[in-house]
Structures are given as structure tokens and as C-alpha cells.
Amino acid sequence: MRSESSEMNKILEEIGLFGVVPVIIIDDAESSIPLANALIDGGLPVAEVTFRTKAAKESIKIIAKSFPQMLLGAGTILSIDQVSCAVDSGAKYIVSPGFNSNVVEHCIKYNIPIIPGIATPTEIERALEFNLDVVKFFPAEALGGTAYLKAISAPYGVLKFVPTGGIDENNLLEYLQFPKVLACGGSWMVKSELIKNKKYDDIKKLTVSAVNLAKLRNK
Fold it and tell me: Domain 6-210: which topology?
């Protein structure tokens, strides 16, 4: 398999510089612009819009057009068709909950950054076969948190991980201080009820807090 292109690595490296990826479920595409504004104003121009709702495709289109500087990705991608739909809409990278070889191979073939989910050493070794640099560790807390991640990642020195699932302001720093963690995915600053109730000021405040916590990772 071909390794990831320099462009792919660049995008993943930029995500790593921020350390946090807001994982967003949008039910109403009209929320896209004020939500993206809140994240950017909070110092975090990064987002993973999950393909769990009918509004996901349109939301990605709106954000990509209005905020081209944003590191905008599509999550919960389960098929090649969804990859094509997400990229055509403006997604710059793809995230999947599990390790779908067809999706991974397609993304590599077309130089689309892909962060597939893993939960076991076997899946890690599949990622290595594809010469991937980064994988998603999901569901992080349910699997055993940093203790489990440290145990399964020990034999694999080259990979970086994006833990997602059960991560919030209380355990973010614990994950980020593990050197093999590139960034963490989380939804606590963009909870569905905050979006539905148009609590964009609250989203901005939570985002600022997350950014400040991430800055402590190397201290």
C-alpha cells in the first residue's frame, strides 16, 4: 500500500498542533455558521462533523465555503460513497469509527487524509500494513482509557493516536500528556443541546477552556 502523502501529513500535523478536535452532531444546517464562528473565536478552527444526521452534508458545505481556513473533517464515515460525498462537500479529512479496509484503501488511493478507528493490536497492525501515521482510538474511555492505550500501543512506536469517546475537560490533559496521542476528539464543548439552544457564547467559552488545557500538554 502507498503511504500517506505529504499533504495528508500536513493536515494531520496541524490537527496535532491544536490537540483537540470538536466532534459535532448537527441537526440543522442553519447552525453551521454561528457554530463555526464560536469555535474559531474560541481559538479552535477545527471540526469533525459526523455523518449521523441529514444535515451533515449541507453543514459541511456551508462551513467549507464560509470558513476555508478551518480544518474541517467528516466523521462516522462508513462507506466509500460517504467519503466521496464528504470530500465533494468540502471535508479535508475523513474519520471512521472502525477500521474499514475499503474506506482506508480508497482514501489512500486518492490522497484523502483518513483517521480510521482501532480498538485492538490486530487493528493497529492493519493500520501499519497501510502505512498509516495516525489512527483513532475509539471508544477511548469504554475500552479502558489511557491505561489500555498505553498497553496496546507499547509495541508500535511509529503510530499516533486520536482518542475519542468519553473525553472531556476532566481527562483531556491526561490523554494529551501521553506522547503517542496526537489530539483528542470530544463533544463536550459542542453538545447537541448547546447547539439546539443556540448557546454559542457557552460553546466559545468551553472552546477557550479546551484550548488552554491543550496548551498545558507539554508543561
Answer: TIM Barrel (3.20.20)
Binning the chain into helix, strand and coil, the percentages to the nearest 5 are 50, 15, 35
Predicted confidence pLDDT, tens digits, the chain (219 residues): 444 455 558 999 999 999 999 999 999 999 999 999 999 999 999 999 999 999 999 999 999 999 999 999 999 999 999 999 999 999 999 999 999 999 999 999 999 999 999 999 999 999 999 999 999 999 999 999 999 999 999 999 889 999 999 999 999 999 999 999 999 999 999 999 999 999 999 999 999 999 999 999 987
Q: Which residues of 52-80 are buried (b: 16+ CB within 10 A; e: fewer)?
A: ebebbbbbbbbbbeebeebbbbbbbbeee
Which residues on adjacent β-strands are paired with residue 162? 136
* Residues known to be catalytic: 48, 136
Domain spans, the chain? 6-210
Listed in order, strand segments (DSSP E) in 25-139 are 46-50, 71-75, 93-95, 114-115, 117-118, 134-137
User: How far apart (Å, rounded) are the C-alpha atoms in residues 178 and 37?
Assistant: 30
Residue 216 CB neighbour total at 10 angstroms: 12
With 0.85 as the threshold, say if the pTM is over it: yes
